[in-house]
Amino acid sequence: MKANWAETYYKRQFELMRSNSAYPANNFFEEEVSLLLEQVGRPSATVLELGAGRSDIANILARQDRKIVTIELVEEICGYAKKHAHQNVQALCGDFYTIKLQRDFDLILYLDGFGVGNDDDQSYLLQRIFNWLSDDGYALIDIYQPLYWQKIAGQEMYPFGIENIIRKYDYDEAGNRMTDTWWEKGKENETITQSLACYSPEQIYTLCEKAGLQIIAYYPSGAIDFETGAFQKIASLDECLSYRIKLKKN
User: Which comes out higher in pLDDT, residue 20 or 52?
Assistant: First the structure.
């Protein structure tokens, strides 16, 4: 399943961020990897990362003697990932709803992107994750929290402090989806938007259970305080922008 907006959005976002040198610093990814490893709680020799982008996370994991396979939809982003890949990273270009993988993995990551399609699409992807996961493996997936997105609908900001680009968060009540729209100043008619399904902890638990996966932990992320503009690293499960679930096979 490929959403009709996905390739256009991620390609243009990559171009905008690259032209403005706006990617997070390396220490951001180092901290994220440290958090991931803490949440996994045990060694993992083989890792699959879905929607891996430039493979920043994968390259750090690979330096710790892990074998990593990444899947990225956009050819230009995958090309960048291949050019800068650690020798232990295999960067694949494709749609993870259709790509064929003939192996299983100790750890599967899907960070900041789950919810591309409808509930049936999510269920299908979770079933694929079940099939790719080793019997004693774990998956970590980021889920968007609907209560947060309802509350902050309509908020605008400059992503990564880039003052010529505007980013607007919104919420589709009918579809229960967050939307994230970007445009350059003066080019309001040339927007790009991603639309991702939001799930409460109870809703995602039910979806995972149908796929034979059990949630064994919830890890809330932080939240943006739009009154101060600051990002709060600690937020409750009901107030966070997104939360991470840790899965194993039932």
Answer: 52
